[in-house]
Amino acid sequence: MSFNKTLSRHYKIIYLLQNKPRSFKEINNELANQQDATEDLRVSQRTFQRDIQEIEQIHQIEIASDKSKNVYYIKESAEDEYKTRLRENYDIINAIRMSKGMGESLFFEQRKALGTQHMADLLNAIQNRKEVKFKYQKFWDASLTNRIVKPIALKESKNRWYLIAKDTKDNIIKNFSLDRMSELQLTNLRFTSVEYNIHEAFENSFGIINGTNDKVSRIILAFKIDQGRYIKSLPLHHSQKLISQNDNEIRFEYQLKPTFDFVQEILSHGSDVEVIAPLSLRKKIIEKLKASIENYN
């Protein structure tokens, strides 16, 4: 049996069980009704059990059985962010695969590549504690600089991926956007573990900015009702807590540092949001809005 056929069957089984639990008979009937398949994908019970094991190994998706109802289902883990993201990425990959040959059925944003081609080498370097070197272009500077760093972790923020690493030039831990890297190379220079807890470092940060003098604050934002519902469904930060709601607005509380990127996030919501507390952040937003108005005078 070809690997492509096995993979196609994996995709279909995952797709079916994401919709609802199903019996082996129901799954096999659906595998027989593949409009886009050149081969019959039906399998024996024994092969199906092997498929379940391979799906967990290859796709990191665990399929369990409910013997009382005689059905199979995808085992959810609310606290396992790693598996949740794998599932989400699988959905995207499967959608791209399904849309092939269907004309204009899937539209992508036109944007620059994210630098994800560097991820495998960087993860290798992190795991084996190898220094890496690359050329780097800052966001505000067109010039290229040569960097040699001790990689610590990869972090996502605002649809970009960043390398958190200690720069060997000054021994300062910095953030490097992967899409700004070029000519990445793993060196043979190994380093001892870098004492840096990324979870603690970014616990109270909104995005990728954390090495500032900003203090953690109790921030209260009031959103107009329509925008508030959107924010309620897609929180700005993991500390977001609903504190009040009426027909006009929804208020949320946050525990974080009011860094530049968080200020920019507030400004991006325009008149749909009002900073209630702290007063210092409210004044900063007012100053920014006044400066923006001046641009049009």
Automatic annotation (TrEMBL):
WYL domain ranges (all copies): 118-185
UniProt superkingdom: Bacteria
Stored Pfam families: WCX, WYL
Ranges where the WCX domain occurs: 222-291
InterPro entries reported for this sequence: CBASS_pafABC_assoc_protein (IPR051534), WCX_dom (IPR057727), WYL_dom (IPR026881)
Protein name: Uncharacterized protein
Organism name: Zunongwangia atlantica 22II14-10F7
